[in-house]
Amino acid sequence: MYLKRLLPNFSRPFSSASIVALLSGIFMLPAHADILISPQRVVLNDTNRQGIISLHNPGKVTRAYSLKWVERRLTEDGQLIFLKEGENPSSITSMVRYSPRRVVLEPGQTQTVRLDYRPPADLKSGEYRSHLRIGMEPLPNQSNGGDINLGDQAGMSFRLEALMSFTVPVFVRHGEGAATVKISAVEPTMIKRDGSTSEPGLIVTLTRAGEFGAYGRLVVYQQMNANSPVELIGLTEGVSIYAELSSLKRELLLKPGTQLPPGSWVRIAYEGEGSERGQVFAERAFQIGK
Fold first, then answer.
1. Gap between the Cα atoms of 277 and 216, Å rounded
2. Which domain holds residue 54?
3. For residue 96, how many other CB atoms are within 10 A of its CB?
4. Do 66 and 99 share a structural domain?
5. Which of 208, 205, 272, 209 has its CA nearest to residue 237?
6. Tens place of pLDDT for every residue, the chain, 290 residues?
7. Quick check: 161 and 35 in contact, CB under 8 A?
8. What residues have CB less than 8 Å from 276, skipping those under 6 apart?
9. Distance between CA 21 and CA 16 in Å, rounded?
10. Helix, strand or coil, per DSSP, at residue 76
11. Which of 140, 174, 208 is the last residue of a domain?
């Protein structure tokens, strides 16, 4: 049994180059974006009541965007769904103000959106959340966004003008609280990559307790046998489990060509990102087929 050898090796930090190489094998980043948004998640609390979101236009044409609050809920299978007005009991729209509400970005220009958290006196301890929607608006005599060519038929050309929108989750954490997360189940499975060939993957179930949610990345390591090195085979970033969820199930796509033979050891770690960076929420090691 080589689990004792495997676990110390897992604690070794991996270089940035190995992380980039793994990510490039799992997915391709788009070559063009109409807007760059940073950060993609904001956390406000009793000691940090102001926040900023930077919007940058990397393109060659002027773009306009409107901003407004929307409510979304995270399901146990990791899907974000929109809620109707009044359906989110943890909404922050009455306690967080933002400005401006509309921006026009020239090519290469950056605009800062400022957030200001003002808690009411009777606010109960806990985590609250809404999403800030950043939606593209049409400008006069200009294409509305991404043009989608639908082809030609009977001498006519069809094009669809797409108005894109993005949502940034904004969290308020009031009072003293924490999140306890466990990796309660791991199941090997086959996942289709880009809708084509099925390759080995993992279905991971996280369980959460406490007043706050958690945010991080799932990192997967593998050791084939006692004489083989520990390898990084999977990395899924931006994994959230909101405070209203007690469990979350995610499919993890592994590095292309990864095999999970019986007897090999796998370790999964849920590591904090953003304001939780440096924290290891949970980890689990297991042997395939055991």
1. 8
2. 36-174
3. 23
4. yes
5. 272
6. 444 344 434 444 444 444 444 444 433 333 336 899 999 999 999 999 999 999 999 999 999 999 999 999 999 998 999 999 899 999 999 999 999 999 999 999 999 999 999 999 999 999 999 999 999 998 886 655 555 444 555 554 444 445 688 999 999 999 988 899 999 999 998 888 776 778 889 999 999 999 999 999 999 999 998 889 999 999 999 999 999 999 999 999 999 889 889 999 999 999 999 888 889 999 999 998 87
7. no
8. 214, 215, 216
9. 9
10. coil
11. 174
Return the H-helix or E-strand segment holding 191.
strand 179-192
Q: Structure tokens of 172? A: 């308020």
CATH number for the domain that contains residue 249:
2.60.40.10
Residue 136 and residue 14 share a domain:
no
Tally the domains of the chain.
2
- Residue at which a domain ends, from 174, 190, 216: 174
Residue found under tokens 């190489």? 21
